[in-house]
Amino acid sequence: MEKMDSEKLKVILGLFIKFIEKTGCSEATFNLSESGEVYHYGDAKFYCGGVGNISPPFNVNHVIEQLVEPYLVGELSDGTEIYEYDVIIEPNSDVKLIGRGTSYRTEEPESIEEDDLNPEIFQGLPDETFYVDFSGGGDSGYIEDYGYIPQGATDIKISEELNDVLYKLLENFGGWEINEGSQGRFEITPSEKKIELTFSWNTEETIEETIEEWNFAD
Q1: Residues 86 and 209: beta-carbon distance below 8 Å
Q2: Are residues 170 and 137 in the same domain?
Q3: 157-171: per-residue pLDDT in tens?
Q4: CA distance 106 to 90
Q5: Cα separation of 187 and 61, whole Å?
Q6: Considering the domain boundaries, does residue 42 fall inside one?
Q7: Is there a single domain that holds both residue 42 and residue 123?
Q8: Which of 217, 205, 218 is nearest to 102 (CA)?
Q9: pTM of the full predicted structure?
Q10: Which residue range forms the structural domain that includes residue 164?
Q11: Rounded distance, CA 170 to CA 81, Å?
């Protein structure tokens, strides 16, 4: 791509700004890939005030790409990876480069305890407390078939009856297996006929951050 000097870039952007001002567009938004390439959507089009696509009188994609190239930082200030950028151009000559990323987090765990259980589900289990992990997400979820004792070498087979009880406890958290899902574990204490469920939701959040701002007023 042929580089242009800052004055030429400013002139071309100035002409485009006059165009959106004349058309009554509150702001022009160009969507860019993580590598800084303007998505074309066929012709060189942009969103006008969030509604589009609108065709400019001349192709400004290469100008926008050169403008933002030195500022493609790759991640937001909190370390979230950027998956796309927006360049927003306003009639008052303000230009912003916005980075967008997805943040995945796990919420603080919460626990529920169940001790009103059929004693028969604990038959054949060791007296020592053991744990069973579970995980859910993307419209599917599962409970592990075997339990474990921390630092122990023996896997503990989960009976069908106990497995049904564990799934029943998860019903306290509707949607545990869909979208971003959840994870956690069951703490099973056969000697006390007690099960404690520790549960954490996963969250997905789109984060936007202004990377750079310019003003191309005369």
Answers
A1: no
A2: yes
A3: 999 999 999 999 999
A4: 38
A5: 58
A6: yes
A7: no
A8: 205
A9: 0.73
A10: 116-192
A11: 33
